[in-house]
Design a protein that fits this description.
The complex is a heterodimer of chains A (307) and B (328). Chain A is mainly alpha-helical. Chain A has a single domain, classed as MetI-like fold (Orthogonal Bundle). A two-stranded antiparallel sheet of chain A has the order 1-2. In chain A, α3 runs antiparallel to α11. Chain A is globular and about 75 Å long. Chain A starts with a helix and ends with a helix. Chain B has 328 residues and is an alpha+beta fold. Chain B is built from 14 helices and five strands. The two termini of chain B are 41 Å apart. The model of chain B has no long low-confidence stretch (mean pLDDT 89). The chains are: A mainly alpha (307), B alpha+beta (328).
């Protein structure tokens, strides 16, 4: 009887552990070393030391895809924090139709990225897209959207604007709009849960003191909801860094002029189109390092910052 | 009064935001019901309508294309039933020509055309098979592991739990290439196993179940133990029936994520007969890139099952997103 008690916990964990070990831990461990090899199509590697990494730092396309990705994150993440915070606040103040709005907001999150990428690709199409139709209602001439490689700042400030400060292409901005749209509802639900944890007492006290709604939002809601903000910030950043399907489906191989080539798409392209798996793995490891640092910041921050 | 205006503004803002979230879906469905030429003309953006000319003759109405119109006579092409030109350049009196506007004119046959253009039936079958096979796997492995983590004491428990936790943190693109090489070594590329077996474990589900098992009263287990029930007996006869709601919620989450999974099957399979729905849809996106209305139809029917699932379980999905998103 006693020995049975000792063995059985491990038996219960075994199936999950075996699968995780084989299909997660081993690949993760492998990914740490693959970057130091050159892999032929035959599947046997030759050790080449840091050569992949040296090539990576000299590779213009790597830097281009990295800067695209940083711009992409800079556009998507603040949008997916500020808008959900605002709309969760509004949602928290009403009683009727609340669940209907919640369903509407959450809908994009559950639908497949492949399908909505196709839909948004057509929304952004030049001739018959919904986006240009919407602009035409305000008398704005049609834009090239996904076909436009010119930087957004250059489009706004005219052709006299310097090239080095042109900013992300309109094509990348289009993908950012779609990506933000997809994650807004999820973050709104997280914020709504965070807001519901704030005790009403604070607001009642503020009302007695005659504080305006805006002051209440700024001085009560914002600080008290900051754990949610921090969680949403890190989670959205990590997932935005991994965007792939949008680029695969909405653009022609990260075009025009590589302006929508995001880092994970570049990994895919080098690994599975060019079959240069060692190199692709080196880039993946670099991405891993970025995301790991972000995760560590999150864990540290979570302990310190809040109430 | 002031409060009423404030509420009115709040509702208006929420509605505008809601429209932004669902307009792409509305447009998707309405475009999927248009003819391609109607879509290209872009006259009615949301209402599938149809405009054409007919020639009223003594023998009845014929569909035509107008080539040239003048005050009393016009040149036309007469069309047959399949809308192909039957007679070219005929001169007829203009007053016999009539413009017809049909609104709405719903072309449901777009769905049939899209469905048969590439073998979507196979894609659906593959997705259903892969989703449900890995769902069963996830449920079994998670249930057992979560039970051990929640209710048993053993050496190395903390360490193993920490290992599970750390594996959840590693994003999929990091181990995509190494997984490909590993499955290549197993000779598993281009097989169903590659799509199912690695996804028969889900750390998130283990956490969900563990939380739930911890919330069950301890007395329940003690009583059963005194009655001489084995550990597995307790699990099967007592814990399982009490866990139905959480199993349902976890199943919905697992199904949605495996139904929508794209990058993994894209990389691990190549054979057309192994394509899952998302890969098939992306293939269709390349094949039919100019046939907008068919693309929209395919997008619509590919998200429909998940949409139905979502509407059935939306309360649980949203509630448990709110709960699990926030770690305590």
């Amino acid at each position: 009887m006693k020995t049975q008690w000792k063995i059985s916990p491990y038996l219960y964990i075994l199936p999950a552990f075996a699968l995780l070990f084989l299909f997660r831990m081993i690949p993760v461990a492998m990914s740490l070393v693959i970057g130091f090899f050159e892999w032929g199509i035959t599947g046997s590697g030759t050790f080449i030391g840091l050569k992949n990494y040296i090539a990576m730092f000299k590779d213009e396309l790597f830097w281009k895809s990295l800067s695209n990705t940083v711009w992409f994150v800079v556009m998507v993440v603040p949008t997916s924090i500020i808008l959900p915070l605002i709309f969760a606040n509004l949602l928290n103040q009403i009683t009727k139709l609340k669940s209907l709005f919640r369903i509407m907001y959450f809908l994009p999150y559950v639908t497949s990225l492949v399908a909505v990428s196709i839909v948004w690709k057509i929304i952004f199409s030049e001739q018959a897209g919904l986006a240009n139709h919407f602009l035409s209602l305000f008398g704005i001439p049609p834009l090239g959207w996904l076909a436009e490689s010119t930087g957004i700042f250059k489009l706004i400030f005219g052709s006299g604007w310097p090239d080095w400060a042109a900013g992300p292409s309109l094509a990348l901005c289009s993908i950012a709009i779609m990506t933000a749209w997809k994650s807004l509802g999820y973050n709104t639900i997280l914020y709504l849960a965070g807001l519901q944890n704030i005790s009403k007492v604070y607001y009642e006290a503020a009302d007695i003191d005659g504080a305006s709604k805006f002051r209440q939002f700024w001085n009560i809601t914002l600080p008290l909801v900051s754990p949610t903000t921090f969680y949403v910030l890190i989670m959205t950043t990590i997932s935005t860094f991994q965007a792939f399907s949008q680029v695969y489906l909405m653009t022609d191989k990260g075009g025009p002029l590589n302006s929508t080539k995001l880092i994970v798409y570049y990994i895919y392209e080098r690994g599975f189109d060019a079959l240069d798996m060692g190199y692709a793995s080196a880039v993946a490891l670099f991405l891993f390092a970025i995301l790991l640092i972000l995760t560590i910041i999150q864990m540290r921050g979570e302990k310190k910052v809040f109430y | 009064m002031k409060e009423k205006i404030r509420l009115g503004i709040i509702y208006a803002l929420l509605a505008i935001f809601g429209l932004f979230m669902i307009v792409p879906f509305v447009w998707m469905v309405s475009t999927s019901l248009m003819t391609q030429s109607e879509f290209n003309k872009q006259e009615a953006v949301f209402i599938p309508k149809e405009e054409y000319h007919v020639w009223n003759t003594d023998g009845g109405q014929r569909r035509i294309l107008v080539v040239q119109t003048e005050a009393d006579s016009s040149v036309i092409h007469v069309l047959n039933k399949d809308l192909k030109i039957e007679q070219e350049y005929i001169k007829v009196p203009t007053k016999q020509i009539e413009k017809i506007v049909k609104k709405p004119s719903l072309h449901w046959d777009n769905y049939k055309k899209a469905f048969n253009k590439v073998p979507f039936a196979i894609y659906f079958k593959n997705t259903l098979f892969v989703s449900f096979a890995s769902l069963i796997g996830v449920m079994i492995t998670s249930f057992l592991a979560a039970y051990a983590f929640a209710r048993m004491e053993f050496k190395g428990k903390q360490l193993i739990f920490l290992m599970f936790l750390s594996m959840m943190m590693v994003p999929a693109p990091i181990y995509l290439i190494s997984s490909y090489m590993l499955l290549d070594k197993f000779n598993w590329l281009d097989t169903y196993q590659a799509l199912i077996v690695p996804w028969c474990v889900n750390i998130f589900t283990i956490f969900m179940f563990r939380q739930h098992f911890r919330s069950l009263p301890k007395e329940l287990f003690d009583a059963a133990m005194i009655d001489g029930a084995s550990t597995f007996g307790i699990l099967w006869r007592i814990v399982l029936p009490l866990s139905k709601p959480i199993i349902a919620t976890a199943s919905v989450f697992t199904l949605i994520s495996s139904w929508n999974s794209f990058m993994w099957p894209l990389v691990m399979t190549n054979r057309p007969e192994l394509r899952v729905l998302q890969v098939g849809l992306s293939y269709f996106n390349q094949e039919a890139s100019t046939q907008t209305t068919l693309l929209m139809a395919a997008s619509t029917f590919s998200i429909l099952p998940i949409l139905i699932l979502f509407f059935l379980a939306q309360k649980q999905i949203i509630a448990s997103t709110a709960k699990t998103g926030m770690k305590d």
